[in-house]
């Protein structure tokens, strides 16, 4: 059973060129989940990158914070048609985590709680994606994916996997949870790539 929170009092601003087609502006931060919220302590949390060679590279919470943390201000767009503009995050660029990971043009992102999504590797590098640990100057709340979530703001927000645990590098693109259930394999909000 999915979970939906308040925050759907959205409005359309046709004149805003930052709002993709079919999207409505919200000032709230709606919460949508396909299941219960995992509670992961930072003592137990880790991020893993599993290469095509099978080698698992991991970072603990402390090791992740030893990497450069960046401040990110970005717009986010949910497939359910809400958009939130100018959101403020803090996180570690995937460029650092994928630097020595070897080959693989695709990824399967996996989360605590069993959620998966697919993201092409090129969309996770070049300063386009982060492991986010803060939102709006505060530690990331569990309902929004804390202690850490993926942040890939140039695609629909379901690709920004909550409670992120790591990713597998793949040779071929494979659908994740929502993609297996009819969502688009890529999810570009400017092309309204919502469903298959």
Automatic annotation (TrEMBL):
SUPFAM superfamilies: Oxidoreductase molybdopterin-binding domain. It comes from Microbacterium foliorum. Residues 35-178 form the Oxidoreductase molybdopterin-binding domain. The lineage of its organism: Bacteria, Bacillati, Actinomycetota, Actinomycetes, Micrococcales. It holds the Pfam family Oxidored_molyb. It comes from the Bacteria. InterPro entries: OxRdtase_Mopterin-bd_dom, OxRdtase_Mopterin-bd_sf. Signal peptide: none annotated. Coiled coil: none annotated. Residues 1-30 are annotated as: Disordered. This is Sulfoxide reductase catalytic subunit YedY.
């Amino acid at each position: 059973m999915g979970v939906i929170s308040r925050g759907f009092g959205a409005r359309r601003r046709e004149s805003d060129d930052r709002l993709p087609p079919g999207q409505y502006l919200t000032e709230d931060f709606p919460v949508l989940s396909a299941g219960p919220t995992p509670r992961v302590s930072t003592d137990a949390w880790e991020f893993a990158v599993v290469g095509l060679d099978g080698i698992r590279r991991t970072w603990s919470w402390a090791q992740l914070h030893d990497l450069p943390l960046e401040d990110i201000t970005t717009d986010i767009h949910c497939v359910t048609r809400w958009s939130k503009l100018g959101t403020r995050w803090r996180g570690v660029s995937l460029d650092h985590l994928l630097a020595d990971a070897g080959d693989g043009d695709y990824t399967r992102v996996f989360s605590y709680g069993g959620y998966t999504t697919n993201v092409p590797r090129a969309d996770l590098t070049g300063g386009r994606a982060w492991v986010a640990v803060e939102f709006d100057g505060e530690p990331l709340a569990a309902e929004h994916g804390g202690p850490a979530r993926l942040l890939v703001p140039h695609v629909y927000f379901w690709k920004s996997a909550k409670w992120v645990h790591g990713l597998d590098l793949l040779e071929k693109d494979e659908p994740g949870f929502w993609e297996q259930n009819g969502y688009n394999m890529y999810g570009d909000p400017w092309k309204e790539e919502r469903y298959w």
